[in-house]
Every structure is written in C-alpha cells, then in structure tokens.
Design brief:
Rossmann fold; 23 helices; nine-stranded mixed β-sheet; 22 strands; alpha/beta; elongated
C-alpha cells in the first residue's frame, strides 16, 4: 500500500520540474593544462610501473661479482615459478599420430597429445629423412595467426629447418590453429581473433590470481616431453623459436625449462618500459601476474637462462620497440659476460616492420646450426607450402568439433570452484566481526588501495545560479597526476544536511544530459548531489590506449597494466572516491551526512571505497554486477565489467563480502545484473546476496540491507528516495 501511495508523489515531483537545457559540467575545455585527462588512468598505472622498473634497474647496478649474478639468477627463477603459478602434474601424453605426409627429403607426422588430461595439443612433427643417429630438434611456435603454424610464413621457416637436418615440432598455441576456444560451428570460425581468444578467458584466470601464461608455458614443456619420447631426437640438442606470440612463448618456456639448450625468440623481446610507452601491455599471456611489481622485465627471461645460447631476433620498425630490445641486449650481454659466456648471447636486427625477414631467418638457422651442432648452409631456401587442411591433425580441423577438448575457461573453472569452497569455509569459520575486519584488509591488499596523507587543494571553477539549485564546479586532486572533475548541485529550498555522491559508469556528462531525473528528484527532496568522474570514466576516459585486447569498447590492456604493477583500477578509483569524501568534509563542510550512489559496474569501486571509508553512511547500487567469481564462472561475460574486478581476490573476498562489511550502515541494491549483463536470476541473487543478509541480521539491522527490482525509472527513483529517508 505504501508503494501505491508514494508513486503519485514521485511522479508529481518529476513532472513539476521545468524543462531546461543541459547543465554544463565540463571542466577540461576550460582547464587546458589538464586536457590530457582522458589518459589519466593509463598514465598513472605507467607511473607506478616506471617507479618499480627503476627499482629493478638499481638492483641490477648493484651486481658486482659472479656470485651476485648467480644469486640474482636463482632469485629470479624462484620468482618466475611463483608468479607463473603452480604448474600441473605431468600426466600421460597419450600421443597419437593421425596422419602422415611423405616428401622426398622429409616426412610429416600429424600429432595430437594431451598437455593435461583432456587438454589436447594439435601439432605436426617434421622429420628429415637423412639423419646420422639422433638429430637435433627445434620446437616452433607460431605468432598470433588463426591458422597457427600452418600459415605460409611459418611453414616456410619450419620446412627450411627440416631441410637443414632438424627435427621440427610445430604446435598450435591455445586459441589458434585447431585449438580455437570460441569456435562457431555454423560460421566456421571463432567469435574472436587470436589475441581475444587469449585475453577473454585470460581475464578469468587473472580474476583467479594467475596469468594464462601458465598454460602456454606448460604446452611448451609438454612439447619437450613429447620430443623426448621420439627415438629420432637427441635430448641434449633441443632448441625453441617463434615469432611475435611465438616469441613470447619461446622466451617464457625457455626461461623455465632447462632442457631447452638454445632459444631464439623473434620480434618480442624489448623492455616493459618501452612497451608501456608505445603499444601498451599486450594480450593476456604476455603479462605475468604482478610481473613488474615483482621486479621482472624481459631481460630477466634471458638472464635466467645464462649461460645457455640465446639469440634475440629483432626488426627496427617493430611495434615491440627496438630501443627497448637494444637496451635489454646490452644488459643481458653484461650478464652473460659476468658468467664468462659473452659469446653465448647474440642479437640480430633488420630494418623492417614486425615481420620475418630473410636476414633474420638466416641468422636464426645459423644460430641453431652452431649451438645444436648441426653444421651446414644457412641459406634461406624456396620451399613447397602445404594447404592449411593438409596439416590438420583432427578430422574436422578443430578440436572443438572433433575431441571436445578442455579450454582455458574450463581449466580455470575448476580452480574457481575450489577457491569458492575455500571462501565459503572462511565465511563459516570466522566470527562475523573478525570476518568484516579481514575483508577490509584483504580488499586493500589485493586491490592495491592506499590511504594517502596528502590530499592537495581543490580548484573552484565557477558557479551557476538556477531557480531550483546552485551548480558549483570543482577540480579535486586525484591519486595520480590528474584532477577529478566534480559538479555539486545544491538545492535552493528545503536543503538538507546530506550530500549524495553520484558515480555513473557512463560519466557525469551523460548523467546530466541523458539521465537527470534521479538527480532532479533528489534535489527536489532537498538533498545535495555531487557528480564526479574517476579515471577511465566520462571525461577521464577512455584514453588513447585501446590495445590488442579491445573487446566491446573495453580495453583489457589497461586493466593488464594494473595487474603488472599490483595496483588495480578498482583500487585507484576507490582511492579517488575517498578523496571526494575528504573534499566534502574539508572544503565544503556543511553536510552532516555523506551518502553514495553508483550506477553500473562502478558499483564495485564504490563498495570498496565504502568499506575503506566509514564516513560514507548510506550506499545505493543500481544495476551492479554481483560477483567477481560469477564472471570467472561464465563462459560468456560482459567485457565492460573487467576493469571493475580485482585480480586474485576470489579466494579471500568477493563483492558479497564487501556488501556484508557495509553493515550496519544502509545498503540498497536495485536491479542487480548477472555476469552476462542481463538481470540477475533468482538463484544468482540468492547465491550472492544471502551472506550479507545473514550478516546484517546478525547485527540486528535487517532493514538496512535491501535488494529489489524496479520496473522503470520512476520505480527506481521511488526506492532511492525511500532509501535516503
């Protein structure tokens, strides 16, 4: 009955507000000095990275003796193994040869083996016919092509190597060739390109607390295992190479697997400083979890191998910076020299783009001929190229339709379920009060949130006087070298001593131009409203970096930057929300109560901030997603949620825990969404909202936690106004 009586009142309030032109809440058209505001999020991530990389450079400069270098090598190897994550146990490869192609001077065996149970690797083994005893072998990994190693460029290199007497094992990285994870049978292709094939499920691995690099490395290790089952192969003469993404996989695998004697990563090795200053972090498997904050750079991937033979294959116009490659080579050469093996590290460069050149190919052939003891001509030969389907190891050309292979998603899904079981135990075992404290501590640590003693001074930027309200504009110092734009609406009549912080995932300019009914209704009720943007949102985004994992208008690459530095976007934005609260308390000072409302994915950031900042006394979330874990458990999720997740959180806390930690303050959730962006189903709401409900009940404030469905804007406004009372 109350709802029926209240609706006409709300409707009356809305329709009585006179039509008006859009309020001007833009600040950066005037403040030219801050006009690069849209890049604030990425540049702040980079500033953290540069500080961490400078610390690494200082550590390198401290190395003096051979023992110093060997000790660092040991430490780096231990770090790599830790941040890669626990590698699986070795299980039977169950290798099978599915077809044979015979040529005059070599033969090809089409092969499938299991890297893990049910996780199939498609490959081809190229065997030279003329061999004297056991032959040296080279593992070849393709770059980011849909065809995998079957593309003409990669076949050319592989067949040249086999004609020079090398056994060559070429295998498909997951997400390429016959291992597409999002294969659409009707369309006959993947829904995604190769980089997105890696980053879309890779983001789910990060949510679990590790990089999908682990699976790429493991495929390389198991490929070595397969070679060692072959009587044709000399186990002491194994090399590995690949270009672009194949260069990535070569560098990481060879850093971990000591059985790889000679490694030649092509068009990948540079330095993280120059990656960040140019193309930005690349797709998921190139970025180890907390890699930069742990003091790891590209040079470490090579130095950890010293004194094993290594060749950097580069081009001067590659999007992987040649300057970074040169500086890395200089450092690595010093490292090898300290170990008495200066001649074991080499670099070749050619003047070209991100491609394989004749000069570089011949240098790579010569490198393997020398260090795998297989002398001969290094001339690059014209060779016969096979049609893609001729090299299929499966009947259909796809594991998805032939063997129903495990994927990165299904492998990670098992890990997530195990983590959720651990989290459930934590909730059951810990006292409610102790649990709430640990939630806040875990959220700070994992998000990278920091309280800062210096908040700086806000800049007042003008006032508009309207009939119903005043509009004041401010620039508020953010957590990095940027200013937060804010617009404070103050009602003229019936003014209350309460201000509502309003954060919309679409930005404050959208709010005033397209979605202002809620603002007008709160003003009409006497509440002041502060609109503001945070990095990556509205006038502070999206920035110039899109990256190679730009999915549905969301840059995963910018999120990866935060993972590299252990400073999440969520942590950064939560800090800024706390700064907004500080601004209200110290610069405005006329409000007794501060409440906060978020619309969309940024509800995650507000939840974090409200747990950290107790002076936010009421919290309202409209159309929030409910859980990090739910995203990791969904084969199809909404990409725009990813920046608002915290990598590595879900075995320690999830959004439902933050909701519980808001108690006994008031929390209202309206129209929660599932991981796919659709309204959350009842089972999901029950799953993720039961725990906070229990905690609020334990605190004796059952009525302070509410979640509901609003059928339209008027219903939403009604519920928000009721929540404020």
């Amino acid at each position: 009955m109350k709802t029926k009586l209240f609706l006409p009142l709300i409707f009356f309030l809305i329709v009585q507000i006179p039509a008006q032109s859009q309020d001007d809440v833009n600040l950066f058209d005037y403040w030219k000095y801050y006009s690069d505001a849209e890049n604030s999020m990425y540049k702040t991530s980079c500033s953290h990275a540069f500080d961490q990389l400078d610390n690494r450079k200082e550590a390198i400069l401290q190395l003096q003796s051979k023992n110093d270098y060997l000790e660092r090598q040991k430490i780096v190897k231990e770090k790599l193994l830790r941040i890669i994550g626990t590698l699986p146990e070795k299980t039977p490869l169950n290798a099978q040869v599915t077809g044979v192609i015979k040529k005059k001077d070599y033969r090809i065996e089409k092969v499938i083996y299991e890297s893990m149970p049910g996780y199939y690797v498609t490959a081809a083994l190229f065997l030279p016919k003329k061999r004297k005893g056991k032959a040296p072998a080279v593992i070849y990994v393709s770059g980011h092509t849909i065809e995998g190693f079957r593309s003409e460029t990669y076949q050319h290199i592989i067949i040249n190597l086999v004609k020079k007497g090398f056994v060559v094992l070429a295998f498909d990285p997951i997400g390429q060739g016959e291992r597409l994870q999002y294969f659409d049978e009707k369309e006959g292709k993947s829904r995604f390109g190769p980089t997105t094939e890696h980053s879309y499920p890779g983001a789910q691995c990060y949510i679990s607390g590790y990089s999908p690099t682990k699976y790429f490395i493991w495929d390389g290790i198991r490929s070595v295992d397969y070679l060692l089952t072959r009587k044709e192969v000399d186990p002491d003469r194994i090399g590995m190479t690949g270009r672009s993404g194949g260069g990535t996989q070569t560098a990481y695998t060879a850093a971990i697997d000591d059985r790889i004697l000679a490694a030649a990563p092509e068009c990948f090795i540079t330095s993280m400083e120059y990656v960040l200053k140019s193309i930005g972090p690349q797709d998921a498997e190139q970025n180890l979890f907390h890699m930069i904050s742990e003091g790891i750079d590209h040079a470490d991937l090579l130095e950890v191998r010293a004194p094993k033979p290594t060749l950097m294959v580069t081009t001067t116009r590659d999007f992987f910076s040649i300057q970074g490659a040169r500086e890395t080579y200089s450092e690595v050469k010093n490292y090898y020299q300290a170990l008495g093996a200066e001649d074991q590290i080499n670099m070749v460069e050619d003047d070209d783009i991100h491609t394989s050149t004749k000069k570089n190919r011949e240098a790579m052939y010569a490198f393997f001929q020398k260090y795998l003891n297989n002398p001969g001509s290094s001339d690059d030969l014209d060779v016969e190229i096979f049609k893609e389907q001729e090299l299929w190891a499966t009947e259909t050309g796809q594991l998805a339709t032939s063997l129903k292979s495990e994927t990165i998603f299904t492998l990670n899904e098992k890990i997530v379920r195990s983590q959720l079981a651990k989290l459930k135990l934590l909730r059951a075992r810990e006292d409610f009060d102790d649990r709430i404290i640990s939630i806040g501590e875990n959220a700070k640590q994992l998000s990278g949130f920091e309280y800062r003693k210096s908040f700086g001074n806000a800049i007042f930027s003008g006032r508009y006087v309207k009939k119903e309200y005043l509009l004041e504009k401010y620039l508020i110092p953010g957590g990095g070298d940027y200013m937060l734009p804010a617009a404070l609406f103050i009602p003229v009549e019936k003014k209350k001593n309460e201000v509502i912080l309003h954060l919309d995932e679409r930005g404050m300019e959208h709010t005033v131009s397209k979605d202002s009914l809620l603002i007008q209704s709160m003003l009409k009720q006497g509440y002041s409203v502060l609109l503001f943007d945070v990095p990556g949102i509205g006038s502070l985004g999206p920035g110039y970096l899109r990256g190679d994992a730009y999915i549905d208008n969301t840059s995963f690459n910018q999120w990866f930057a935060g993972i590299l530095t252990n400073k999440s976007i969520v942590g950064m934005r939560a800090e800024d929300i706390v700064r907004i609260v500080h601004f209200i308390e110290t610069s405005i000072g006329e409000f007794e109560t501060i409440s906060a409302l978020a619309i969309g994915a940024t509800s995650s950031e507000l939840l974090h901030a409200a747990v950290f900042e107790k002076n936010i006394q009421k919290v309202c979330l409209i159309k929030p997603f409910l859980s990090f874990a739910d995203i990791a458990l969904s084969s199809e999720y909404t990409p725009s949620y990813i920046p608002s997740t915290v990598a590595g959180a879900i075995d320690r806390y999830d959004l439902t825990d933050l909701m519980a930690a808001i108690s006994p303050r008031k929390l209202l959730i309206i129209n929660p969404l599932g991981s796919n962006g659709a309204p959350a189903k009842e089972d999901k709401k029950s799953c993720y909202l039961t725990y906070p409900k229990i905690v609020f009940s334990h605190k004796g404030v059952d009525g302070n936690f509410k979640h509901s469905v609003a059928e339209n804007d008027h219903s939403t406004i009604e519920q928000v106004i009721q929540w404020l009372k």
